[in-house]
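Weekly sync, protein design subgroup
Attendees: M.S., D.O., the rotation student, P.L. (late)

Item 1: inverse folding check
M.S. brought a backbone from last month's batch and wanted to see whether the design step gives back something sensible before we order anything. D.O. pointed out we never logged the input encoding, so this time it goes straight into the notes. Structure tokens as presented (153 positions):
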């Protein structure tokens, strides 16, 4: 049986982390984990590149070990997900994508201008599952085809 990589995507405050922790019994990763020190979240743009590499490398190592992995990040564009999509092919893992459609507030104090920019570039993808407070919406999305790294957005 193939191991699985699930990408949970959405804007800040959409419930990505909470959803993953409550619905998956496997390794859950997110770039933000890299910014936690002594139990306190301390984001800095200077370390974001390191955070992205850490999350991806940890995911790759876990998939290669046969583990199931969930990665929760904003993933506003396909380009942001592309290396994870390619990783599923490299590791022979199954890919699923969940999009969080909630707004629980801006818990990380992301500037409003940044949120506005993220919203404007947020793109839909075939096959993603939309989750809101009401549960899974748009059941027809579930019938979408799986992504392949070679497909364009």
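Designed sequence read out in the meeting:
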């Amino acid at each position: 049986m193939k191991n699985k990589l699930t990408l949970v995507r959405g804007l800040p405050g959409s419930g990505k982390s909470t959803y993953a922790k409550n619905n998956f019994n496997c390794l859950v990763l997110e770039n933000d984990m890299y910014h936690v020190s002594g139990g306190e979240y301390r984001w800095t743009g200077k370390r974001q590149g390191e955070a992205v590499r850490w999350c991806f490398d940890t995911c790759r190592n876990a998939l290669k070990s046969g583990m199931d992995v969930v990665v929760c990040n904003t993933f506003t564009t396909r380009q942001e997900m592309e290396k994870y999509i390619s990783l599923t092919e490299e590791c022979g893992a199954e890919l699923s994508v969940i999009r969080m459609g909630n707004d629980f507030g801006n818990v990380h104090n992301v500037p409003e201008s940044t949120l506005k920019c993220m919203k404007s570039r947020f793109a839909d993808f075939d096959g993603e599952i939309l989750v809101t407070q009401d549960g899974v919406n748009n059941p027809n999305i579930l019938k979408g085809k799986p992504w392949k790294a070679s497909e364009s957005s």
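Discussion: The helical segments are 16-23, 48-64, 78-91, 112-121. Strands lie at 4-9, 27-29, 36-37, 40-41, 69-72, 94-100, 129-132, 135-137.
Action: P.L. to compare against the previous round before Friday.
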